[in-house]
Write a structure and sequence with these properties.
By secondary structure, the chain is mainly α. Helices cover 76% and strands 1% of the residues. It binds farnesyl diphosphate and magnesium ion.
Length: 319
Amino acid sequence: MEDNQSIKLDDFFDTTRYDIEEKISSTISDEKIREILHGGKRLRSLLTQLTFKTCTEGKETHEDYQRSLESAVSIELAHGASLIHDDIIDKDAERRGKPAFHIKEGIGHAILTGHRMLAMGFDIALNHGKVVAKLYVDSWNEVVNGEINEVDFNRNGHKEQSLKSTIFEAYDKIIDLKTASLFSSACEAGALEANMSGDILKVFRQYGREIGLAYQLADDLVDLANGEMIDSVIIPLLNRLEKKPIKKTSFKRWEIKRKFAKNEDKIRQYYIDEITKHVRKAEEISKSDVIPHSSYKDLLMDAPSYIINRMLSEINISI
Ligand code: FPP
Ligand code: MG
């Protein structure tokens, strides 16, 4: 795509998604892994391509573009692996409208396939040099730590009687590690593939992190609106908002639902305010002087609200 014409984000995402799918097909021969990756929105890898193109201003060689797509594939592999493991942990039977991988293949196979995918992704990252490989490992480490925090919070959170602010602090940390970290690395990876160094890497890391935080909050808000409780956050929060706490021993679904319905507006408003805050921060970061001017820079500005509003349209909200 030439830079001297204005590009629409929709078109950029559509064209790039096509290229990512092609790269997945030509890189991964294992049918089962291809099926796991099938149907993903490719948000993280689209952001990799967007920061890459912003850095090259659309003037990269064909070889460089293909290499950046390889990086995108490694991100999709890590993300896909994390979802297989997440569905086992969350005891979810469905993913992307189909039976979850552990339901189809059994838990043992699912755990091991997740490990294989991570190894495949790491192999690609390693081929792109030590800096990219280190980014992959650091991000993987953060995602795993986020998930461990969530598992612990789910075990103990019901008992928490701590301050509302402490509950949200724990929640913020979880979503920062388990989700925002991979968005952040995806954005940095695009800049690394374009041979950038210094401040611009930091700017893209922050940009991706803000989108990732908004993404997970929006994902959770949609779940809440669809009646899927996020126990780890909602129960301690309801305990703070209500006089009579829900005890873990007398943990009743209907009781939580009733209390949630009573406090729904407050909780919903909290989510909308937080999501808006992170989207606006990402937009602000996209204007940074260290990012070169091109039509891709304008797309960086459009991307956060575009991504989040698409998610929120399911529950008729727009920010
Ligand atoms: C989805 O969250 C899950 C994640 C963002 C990360 C899951 C991470 C692990 C299972 C750690 C293992 C990591 C690797 C790389 C193998 P969610 O449950 O809120 O979203 P959902 O509604 O899509 O399930
Ligand atoms: Mg889950």
